[in-house]
């Protein structure tokens, strides 16, 4: 073992009543580092030696016996928790040792822990997704099972439980896509608990011959070249509509750039006729960081000149402020996305374009129109900063049928 656990008297601070704090000492031999955790017990040096060291092999009664048993229980539990950690580290030990014994099987405890960690890692959007899933599980557990979510354990969630949850969601008018998102999040929490050796793999309800998460074919929304031209030339009724249209086409012209990346774009990223950035969504998911280079055009330069900060420092656009924290950034970007979607829909309706158009249409429109113009799948994959070619191919699930139809209609054009 690379660690040793013991109960020690911390003599660094003598209290006014002549006692010292009793602490749990965990020493990592590999790191040559120890940490001491308070047990909220104070003893004199004589009491510590008598009760814990017990050099005379005395058998105690009453309060001394209770204290001896309590300390032995603490030391034993600390060793048990440490043994459960595959690769020992202090953070994992602290999580396991200081929680309640029932927490290891608690679904809510694990969700709350993941949410807290995601916020700490500045992954606010992911944390929100876990919150939505937990709220949904809470609603189902309390309405259908009359069980408070605090009492919901991993062992309760079986194949039958998940099928009932699926029915419950469908009855509420939720789509299979939403069900898939929530159950995938729940599965991720199960996997973390198993990885931490807190629950057995035997109760895992997902996989072969178990509950299968619904697989839905994502319909990628995109405008064709005629629709793009119509939207670009569409008259706007006010400055808000014009601004939203400009940002929509800025994304389209910048290889389908995500709104978060647009918001995080800094003047220091711009050099001569181009700017470079790392895609925020995938930055933490791979060890190799791929920089994306976007060449400026007359149009994209005009958007920067029109809406960019006049002092030309910090973030290019006034979507977020560099002094704000990540949670504020997340909320402001979300609100700006809603603002764009609201106005771009108004323009679309007024010009007989798809009513469900959103900011994300710009990314898929860039991809499908690049393919129509003859760009290779490899080029598009690199432009979109996808992890591999299969991710890019998923973008064109519906495009292939459309392309086949166009080909069939032109095959006899000799």
Can you offer a commentary on this structure?
52% of the residues lie in helices and 9% in strands. The protein is mainly α and 414 residues long. Helix 4 (107-120) packs across helix 7 (176-195) and helix 9 (239-253) crosses helix 14. One of its GO terms (biological process) is DNA recombination.
Number of helices: 17
- Classify the beta-strand content into a percent band: 5-15%
Second-tier CATH architecture of the largest domain: Orthogonal Bundle
**Main beta sheet strand tally, sense and closure:** 3 strands, antiparallel
Query: Which strand order spans the largest sheet, edge to edge or round the barrel?
Result: 1-2-3
CATH-level-4 superfamily name of the largest domain = Intergrase catalytic core
Poorly predicted runs: none
Structural class: mainly alpha
Written as H for each helix and E for each strand, in order along the chain, the element string is: EEEHHHHHHHHHHEEHEHHHHHH
And the CATH topology of the largest domain?
hpI Integrase, Chain A
Q: Nearest-angstrom radius of gyration?
A: 29 Å
- Total separate domains: 3
| Shape label | elongated
Gap between N and C termini: 78 Å
Count the E strands.
6
CATH class group of the largest domain: Mainly Alpha
Give the arrangement of secondary structure elements:
Elements: E1 3-9, E2 20-28, E3 33-43, H1 45-53, H2 62-83, H3 90-98, H4 107-120, H5 124-144, H6 159-171, H7 176-195, H8 225-233, H9 239-253, H10 259-264, E4 270-271, E5 274-278, H11 280-283, E6 291-295, H12 298-307, H13 326-350, H14 361-372, H15 377-384, H16 389-394, H17 399-410
Antiparallel strand pairs: 1-2, 2-3, 4-5, 5-6
Helix pairs in contact: 4-5, 4-7, 5-7, 9-12, 9-13, 9-14
